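Q: Give me the 3D complex with PPS.
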Amino acid sequence: MLSMTRVTIRQVAVWVLTLLGRVCSMKRCSLFKIVTILFSMGLTWVTLLLINASGVALGIRSKMNSDLMAARAARDVGDLAANEQPLVDDYLVQDNPLGFYFNEKLHGNIPIGAPFQAAPKLDHQIPLKKVLVFVGDLGSPQVIVLGQFFAHQRIEYRTTLVTGDVPTLVLSDLNVPRYVLLVFDDYASYLRLDARRRSLLDDYCKKYKVGILALTQSKRSSETEVSVEFKLKLQHGLKLKKFKLNTEVDFWRVAKRDMVWLEDLPSSDWTIFSVKHSTYRPVAFSTVDPTWRGSGTNVSKQEFGCVVALHDRGLLDGVERVILGLDLSFWLNAIIAMDAMTYLTNGRLGLPLDRLLQIDIDDMFVGHTGIRTHARDAEEMVASQNRIRHYIPNFSYFLGFSGGWFLAGTPLEQSGDRRLVELAEHFQWFNHMYRHEQPHTQNGSIFKLSLDNNTIFAEKHKIRVVKDYMVTPHHSGVYPALEMVYDEWIKRGVVCSSTEEYPSITPQWGRRGFIHRGIMVVPRQTCRLYTKTVNFEDYPGGKEQLDYSIRGGFLFNLFLSTPVMIFMTHMSNYANDRLAMYAFEKVIEFVLTWTNLRLLSPPPAEIARRYFSMYPQEINPVWTNPCDSEKHREIWPEEKSCRRLPKLIIVGPQKTGTTALLRFLEAHPSLKSSKQDPVYFEEIQFFIGKNYLNGLEWYQEHFPEPNDPRTILFEKSANYFDNELAPKRIYALLPRAKIVIIVSEPARRAYSWYHHMRSHDDPVVMNYTFFEVVSAPETAPRFLRDARNRCLKPGMYAVHLARWLQFFPQQQILLIDGDQLSKDPITVLNNLQIFAGVQPFIDYSGKLEYQEEKGFYCLTETGCLSSNKGRKYPPMDVESSRYLDKFFKDHNTNLRTLLSDINYPYPLWLAQT
Ligand SMILES: Nc1ncnc2c1ncn2[C@@H]1O[C@H](COP(=O)(O)OS(=O)(=O)O)[C@@H](OP(=O)(O)O)[C@H]1O
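A: Here is the predicted complex, encoded as structure tokens.
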């Protein structure tokens, strides 16, 4: 058993030591705490055995993307920080990549392609991206289309200006390529690259077997472009009809290779290619529209005589390229692009062919008299389902019912309700709320009663309800997550749900899933049919637009690019003109006619499990602020407000005077710190580790309700500073928070940490001298290297500060000189008040006085900090001091560079080193 688990006794011993050490280093180490830790480790150990033995962790460790691991390894200095997370947390704390989809930030409304905030220059802070997209203009609609295309498929990408510097392509230390594909939004811009940049890119492509996918844009002054070097002619600005694929091309996967599209093609901006070399082979053909009087009509009109997509096999220069004669707005091009991407990356993007489909019909029986289903509609739903089963054998509509509205409509609609219930066994049913109540307007017992009533209704009408899937009206309580909903769902055996609200409803392509307290929440899609969209004329643009959506437009593209689709529709969409039945039947037929995609309809829990095994990086939620979104505020309980959230966070690092700063700020009448936590004392440590998984309500409960508009809530958790996830998570929840960082001379900080650990009898530092800890080589035992890392890593200030600057604008970050905080706290506190806009301003000279005996400033009213802050210990030995001077030299230089770059004054100790 033990060998199966891959966890050795030695690892466990190290782990025990590490955990004890870590907790002691966090806060006071009490006997009670040690007992608690040993007990919880016992539990964790059992969990670990289970996880390892059964593969419950969705095979996540084994699936963990090797690129990501390599990137992580590369961005840490040697082994430093390699052991940041306890083993069992491995899969829980993986970086959530939402930021990548939202253009480096977590904000859904920043358009893709918009330049992200001036990023610091430190290479190892930039996460691995998979596709590098060269664009002419970051704000062009073309870039949006490309961005959506990648975002839907969870392909990490980075956009960069084709005219700018070529970004770093290879992770320096490990020789790991960052990108598996280069994309150009306009092939002409690639042809026009200067020799230096072109050879840089071509060399990269050749060395790492990376291909190029290029689109074309025809809105240019010259209609014909000739590349002598590539023996290639491009003719732009054409209108085409008909489209067919080259059956001889061997990379067709999504596309049906023998497809022939006989209709007109949209756009008059097509490009066609003429080639004079065997290195090329056509990918798709078309015919120039003879009626076209536009710019390029002097080309052959011959049936399928024009090449509209080209594969350059790289015989000339070793670089493989696929070039499309337009952008991705034409759905056939999008299919070709998908197949080309798989081909050009040797499948490294891992795009699946399966599409998992569930169609929910929310609000069965709910209100809306006049637009509800009649008996004939109910029968037609069964017929529609049967027609879909022809393509997807297990398919059923999923009906979310609110029994409290049964028979609420007109007599005809009442007969519809009765017929639905008679036909109940044909469908799948899931619990909504009895009277369609929104949980955020209820208390726990009413919420429970509503679910009970719905269950009683179902039993009475012999409706079999799936137990493991539930959705609430308006997604209330699912996201933003209300613990009351999760509490009740867990009790009832719900294991999955779906929402369109995470992290926000728009953009649709940005919706993601998360797991909260074991409940898997999968993103939902809308097919643009809502409660009031009941007749064709209600659809924006009418039936013509709906048909366009099905035949290659919005709806088709969703199927093309979204491997897991849970659609939201409503009862009224199946009555009246029965738009939903029409739309789904047609789109399914269209998809299966033109693609090799496989449509499947497994049960909801299976869909959810497959979703998270496909996207394990989404397992952990990234909590956002309900009050930052109008939609979320509507489904967030009034009394919870968002006032109980901090506006100021002291993020550390440890041993720089964070406690002194906390205590001094608490002496201000307008500044209220978080409440004491029984485990973490004055630190909540929410944004790192497991506390984060307790959810937003848990965090809010740690703050007092502010009673004065001038009150500023704040918290300090000194371990945030050097944690990789903290800046992103804090930014997601508190994008306007003021961040306070204290930097003191890093060797002094390290020495203070060592003595702090000794005072807590940490078993590692008790057995090793300071020098032995800081200079532990890579060959040293793991526990010693861990101690070394925890001692030194927070002092690599530039690395961490750069990460904070990736998220927070500089004006929101205050850097305090730790030495100044010790020697002249009054000035520091006065400055901090101005920085945080504290009202009223209080001159701290009346609140603090220097205590000779302590050797530090203390509060006049309550006295000095406890004896474990400002300890007396012998001066650092010369050997360690020399060693650390050398060790931190480059880090301090990096800090100087970073601070100069952002025009920030150096702390005195830095200026003097
Ligand atoms: N006014 C005042 N009183 C006491 N101590 C002061 C004060 N100002 C700064 N310091 C320095 O704070 C160091 C402890 O840092 P932290 O509070 O950040 O430590 S911890 O991370 O919370 O454990 C502590 O480190 P040691 O001297 O090693 O104990 C002090 O140097």
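A quick observation: DSSP finds 31 helices and 30 strands in the chain.
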